[in-house]
Automatic annotation (TrEMBL):
Keyword annotations from UniProtKB, A to Z: Hydrolase, Magnesium, Manganese, Metal-binding
Species of provenance: Streptomyces lydicus
Annotated site residue numbers, Transition state stabilizer: N155
UniProt-recorded name of the protein: Exodeoxyribonuclease III
Family matches, as InterPro entries: AP_endonuc_1, Endo/exonu/phosph_ase_sf, Endo/exonuclease/phosphatase, ExoIII-like
Residues the UniProt record annotates as site (Interaction with DNA substrate): H258
Gene Ontology molecular functions: double-stranded DNA 3'-5' DNA exonuclease activity; metal ion binding
Domain Endonuclease/exonuclease/phosphatase: 6-258
Active site feature: Y109, D153, H258
Pfam annotation, one family: Exo_endo_phos
Keyword Hydrolase listed: yes
Cofactor requirement: Mg(2+); Mn(2+)
Family statement drawn from the similarity comment of this UniProt entry: Belongs to the DNA repair enzymes AP/ExoA family.
């Protein structure tokens, strides 16, 4: 069995003060992928930088206070890679991967973008570079008899079922036709070749949402977005037994504007 959880922590130091530490102590995950850590490694409290029972790798952004991804594993990785070979993005704290027995697991924080700004241009450049890497990663893994799992905040809602108010967001970053088309390419067998594991286990369902704005009553009304994904190669996706969002019981119990997304994968011979 392999249980993997992914969550955008919206600042790990802040999350640690709000409830992340007891959540971490209680999780049954074998691997944990974090995004938007927003801290250099030395700035993190000991209990989240190197918690007992975990091997950790932190990939902060060169720009202080921005982005940052981390990966925690109960087992020491055989290999770790920061970045995906991009001159522009390898220092931006947006991608880290680790080889574990039979599977490469990655934590991804794709740029959020904003229509009509440089941020959207940056997002589009990232997407253009990242898809070929995903294809190559899958092909290399297949040649080695391995599976791939890329978890994280992809900052794109793929389908209408992936956000509550889709009609009002058709011209906003995160639900633009070109972004959704790119994600379709990631999931097309003849292109990226990956599987959206949570959607595969929740066919026809609204959500399950993983992000809710702090504005208004979005959380209370479950007016959310599903932008945090487990994207797996088909062999691993077929082994997924259950997927769920660890939504806080109440607004004041949240330690991030995102919620952890957890998937349990069965053994290869299951």
């Amino acid at each position: 069995m392999l249980t993997v959880t992914s969550v955008n922590v919206n600042g790990l130091r802040a999350a640690a003060k709000k409830g992340f530490v007891p959540w971490l102590a209680g999780t049954t995950a074998d691997v944990l992928c974090l995004q938007e850590v927003r801290a250099e490694t030395g700035q993190l409290p000991d209990e989240v930088r190197e918690p007992a029972g975990w091997y950790t790798v932190h990939a902060p952004a060169a720009a202080k206070g921005r982005a940052g991804v981390s990966l925690y594993s109960r087992r020491e990785p055989d290999r770790v890679r920061v970045g995906f070979g991009s001159a522009e993005f390898d220092g931006s704290g947006r991608y880290v991967e680790a080889d574990l027995p039979g599977v490469t697991v990655a934590s991804l924080y794709l740029p959020s973008g904003e229509v009509g700004t440089d941020r959207q241009d940056e997002k589009e450049r990232f997407m253009a570079e990242f898809l070929p890497y995903l294809v190559g990663l899958r092909e290399r893994a297949a040649a080695d008899g391995r599976e791939v799992l890329v978890c994280g905040d992809w900052n794109i809602a793929h389908q209408e079922a992936d956000l509550k108010n889709w009609k009002a967001n058709q011209k906003k970053s995160g639900f633009l036709p070109e972004e959704r088309g790119w994600l379709t390419d990631v999931l097309t067998e003849t292109r990226g070749g990956y599987v959206d594991v949570v959607r595969a286990l929740h066919l026809g369902a609204e959500g399950p949402y993983s992000w809710w704005s702090y504005r208004g009553r979005a959380f209370d009304n479950d007016a959310g977005w599903r932008i945090d994904y487990h994207m797996a190669t088909p062999g691993l996706a077929e082994r997924a037994l259950k997927a769920y969002v660890e939504r806080a019981a109440a607004y004041d119990q949240r330690w991030s504007d995102h919620a952890p997304v957890t998937v349990v994968y069965g053994r290869q011979d299951a």
